[in-house]
From TrEMBL:
Belongs to the Gfa family. The keyword Metal-binding applies. It comes from the Eukaryota. SUPFAM superfamilies: Mss4-like (SSF51316). PROSITE patterns: CENP_V_GFA. This is CENP-V/GFA domain-containing protein. The lineage of its organism: Eukaryota, Fungi, Dikarya, Ascomycota, Pezizomycotina. One of its GO terms (molecular function) is carbon-sulfur lyase activity. Keywords: Lyase, Metal-binding, Zinc. Signal peptide: none annotated.
Length: 176
């Protein structure tokens, strides 16, 4: 089965060849500092061809994700390019920009986002080298709903107290 997705401006698209995926919420403090733009009110979203202003984005209590085998994920429009001399790599429109963060594990979390609209796209975690963590808000065809079931919540130790555990989801204090 092919699952597709994109950033908000359409400059970057991707495809996942997988029949299933792990539906996960992550409450880690890094994920709380980023939010999928699809979850923002329309008044806060970027207009086409408007460059990202990082001061206009906000964080959230968690990210919703489809965790897929890394070999099943492919950028179909736009191409990731990196400049190793800088931790943030701003590139031309249609190219995923990366930002590396050292996670609680001491390993690198490589975040990919659109440098034009700012949409969070996916993350590659050194601690999960065989998987890609795709931000659910960018998925097409209703897949942002994660098929109506959350399998696991990660970093529940950092979950805000005003949020309850998702019934039936495995509760992991950190990465399981």
């Amino acid at each position: 089965m092919t699952i597709t997705g994109s950033c908000m401006c359409g400059g970057i698209t991707y495809a996942i060849e997988a029949d299933s995926y792990l539906a996960a919420l992550c409450h880690c403090t890094d994920c709380q500092k980023v939010i999928d733009p699809a979850l923002l009110p329309i008044s806060q979203r970027r207009r086409k061809n408007q460059k990202i202003n990082q001061n206009q984005w906000t964080g959230g209590a968690f990210t919703s994700n489809a965790v897929v085998p890394r070999t099943s994920f492919k950028v179909t429009k736009g191409k990731p390019i990196e400049k190793p001399e800088s931790p943030i790599h701003l590139m031309q429109t249609g190219t995923p920009t990366t930002y590396d963060v050292t996670g609680a594990s001491g390993k690198i979390n490589k975040h990919f986002f659109c440098s034009t609209c700012g949409s969070g796209l996916y993350t590659e975690l050194e601690v999960m080298p065989d998987n890609t963590v795709v931000k659910a808000g960018g998925l097409d065809g209703g897949e942002a709903n994660l098929r109506g079931k959350i399998d696991v919540e990660f970093y529940v130790k950092d979950r805000p107290s005003y949020l309850a555990a998702v019934e039936g989801a495995k509760q992991e204090p950190m990465f399981g």
